[in-house]
Amino acid sequence: MHAITFDTLEFTEQLKNSGVPDEQAKGHAKALATALKQTAGRIDELFDKRDKQTEERLDGLATKQDLEMTKTELKRDITDLEYRMTIKFGLMFIAGFGMLFTALRYFPPTQPIVISNHSMPTHEQNAFKAPAFSPGLEQNSGKKGAQDTRNSQNQVP
Prior knowledge:
With 157 residues, the protein is an all-alpha fold. The chain has five helices and two strands, in the order H-H-H-E-E-H-H. It has helices at residues 8-17, 22-59, 64-106, 135-139, 144-153; strands at 114-115, 118-119. The protein has a two-stranded antiparallel ribbon. The longest helix has 43 residues, at 64-106. The radius of gyration is 51 Å and the shape is rod-shaped. The relative contact order is 0.04.
């Protein structure tokens, strides 16, 4: 509580010295003391109200401890996400290579694969080469000339 100090005796003496009668000076001092007490009470009420409003505003604000805790939680969440992303990327990488090798197994290339500036060794150098497929040869398989051509193409020297 905020107290306002008021010396009634000194106030009364000042009024008497100014020519105010004794009873009247005491009445003025008493009235002023009462007014000051009421004012002090009202001031205390206003301060209490302001303090409550300030506390209500501050309750919604984060403290340093709250911020540090949130920062730690976010760092942990980011680390977890990094691990999950690494695992997912690895699985996608493995799946991609699996699909590539499957495609190469069932659909082999018909021409040599070029690696940098050098091509793969030719058939004469005992390198793997997929057999050539020609649908026209199967249709003409009843003819003797077509059969001979096909056999001469697949012969290994």
